[in-house]
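queue> pop job 88
queue> type: inverse folding (structure -> sequence)
queue> payload:
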């Protein structure tokens, strides 16, 4: 595959925008419990969209899956299943820590583990310390984590400044929240491991004539099926516990069709994050393991931009807003540093 780091970063940026934006359509869903619209959107993001995307853009995907060793399919599915657990527990980290601190800690660990462990697993990490391109890439990873920490600092200040009696953090628990955020971050990083385990699938896809740009689409079919398994089981349990199965046929005074439509749109946008992430990894050259860090960075960047547009920082002090802007700039800088590392490797 031809390396094109600039295009890779652009594709990761689009994926990060999708990841930061997918929840917005859910705000238009009315009179449904969370588990109902979450699994409806999930069926589109984890089952329908991956199958349609592969069928249209990479028709050799299904032949590639038939020719892939069972062990590779198993590990890709398993890491996808574990990633699904991380997605569920991420909500608890926000519940106990708040949006800013929960995002910072969970995504920080997700970026660190998702970036560093794959080359360790592949016994190639030591090689990174002996080349200028490898050192530059690792510097980009460290810079990214620093940017996430700064954004988290700004978020903690913000929550303290705008908290009111009408919206207190009644469930704030630092000890619970940190442990849950660490667990969520580590488990969410399993998606990076799923892509690493799916290398035999991409090899089979290339052999089946799939374009190098789309060789990760069959990997997504398997990995996201694992994520669907976890989320489906949990959502069905919540439907049973909350007696919310009726949501699928009743939206009260709201439009049932609109609920399905906005849930489907949210699910498709969610899928696009890994659709573009998968394409981006094919362009990053020898150090495609850094893709996970770039993906996390762009999610932070665009989620903060959405926060500004929705005036979530209203009432914060100027110093706090400045710290948040500095964090975003550091995250952008980290993607530039990683791009330089990949450029050096491509040369």
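queue> result:
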């Amino acid at each position: 595959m031809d390396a094109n780091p600039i295009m890779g970063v652009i594709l990761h940026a689009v994926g990060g925008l999708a990841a930061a934006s997918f929840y917005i359509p859910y705000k238009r869903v009315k009179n449904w419990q969370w588990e109902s619209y979450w699994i409806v959107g999930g069926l589109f993001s984890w089952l329908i969209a991956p199958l349609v995307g592969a069928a249209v853009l990479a028709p050799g995907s299904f032949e590639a899956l038939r020719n892939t060793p069972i062990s590779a399919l198993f590990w890709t599915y398993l890491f996808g299943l574990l990633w699904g657990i991380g997605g569920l527990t991420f909500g608890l980290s926000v519940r106990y820590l708040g949006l800013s601190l929960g995002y910072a800690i969970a995504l920080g660990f997700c970026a660190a583990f998702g970036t560093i462990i794959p080359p360790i697993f592949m016994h190639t990490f030591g090689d990174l310390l002996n080349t200028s391109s490898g050192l530059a890439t690792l510097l980009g990873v460290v810079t990214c984590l620093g940017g996430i920490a700064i954004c988290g600092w700004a978020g903690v200040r913000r929550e303290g400044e705008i908290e009111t009696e009408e919206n207190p953090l009644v469930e704030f628990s630092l000890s619970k929240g940190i442990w849950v955020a660490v667990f969520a971050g580590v488990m969410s990083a399993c998606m990076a491991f799923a892509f690493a385990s799916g290398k035999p699938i991409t090899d089979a896809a290339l052999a089946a004539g799939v374009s190098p740009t789309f060789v990760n689409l069959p990997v997504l079919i398997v990995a996201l099926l694992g994520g669907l398994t976890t989320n489906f089981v949990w959502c069905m349990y919540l439907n049973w516990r909350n007696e919310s199965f009726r949501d699928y046929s009743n939206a009260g005074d709201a439009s049932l069709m609109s609920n399905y439509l906005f849930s489907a749109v949210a699910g498709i946008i969610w899928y696009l994050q890994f659709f573009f992430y998968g394409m981006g990894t094919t362009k990053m050259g020898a150090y495609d393991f850094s893709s996970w860090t770039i993906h996390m960075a762009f999610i932070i960047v665009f989620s903060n931009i959405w926060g500004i547009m929705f005036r979530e920082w209203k009432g914060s002090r100027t110093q706090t807003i400045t710290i948040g802007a500095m964090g975003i700039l550091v995250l952008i800088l980290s993607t530039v540093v990683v791009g330089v590392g990949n450029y050096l490797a491509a040369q």
